[in-house]
Amino acid sequence: MPEMIPLGWFHTVIGIIALVSGGITLAKFKEISPGNRSGQIYLAATLVTAGTALAIFQHGEFGPGHALAVMTLAALAVGTVGATTTLFGKLSRYVQAVGYSATLFFHSVPAVTDGLLRLPVGDPVLTSIEDPILKMCYLGLLVLFLVGVSLQMRWIYRQRA
Q1: What is the CA radius of gyration of the chain?
Q2: In the chain, what is the straight-line distance between the N-terminal and C-terminal CA atoms, in Å?
Q3: Cα–Cα separations (whole angstroms), residue 55 to 51, 74, 92, 112
């Protein structure tokens, strides 16, 4: 892995803040919402993290991390429309939950990738992005996302009943 540039460090710190605040928000409120402080922190940190990811070109070209940043920004926009308008009608809160949860999933993929390929410093857990363990981690994150969104949908439905 290439050395981290100052923007990379800033991106990483803000990304960690996003992941922690997103986890706290889901644990406490069962959904990410701009209506509470931890949700606001998560959403702001997510916006900054995705934005800075677009400016990091360690490999000299648009790569998977950039694609995830674009998907994060798109999911953030859709979730925000669901949270702040009635464009989706009765489904708005569900759209908000799926959009914002997708951003957390999109954050998790590069966090796991970089964590396993960089840590511990000098002797990382994995040495190749092609390692099958990494692919299993991605599958685990996807399953966690799908289960989490399903639980949120059920919780939102029960709140309306």
Answers
A1: 16
A2: 51
A3: 7, 17, 32, 20
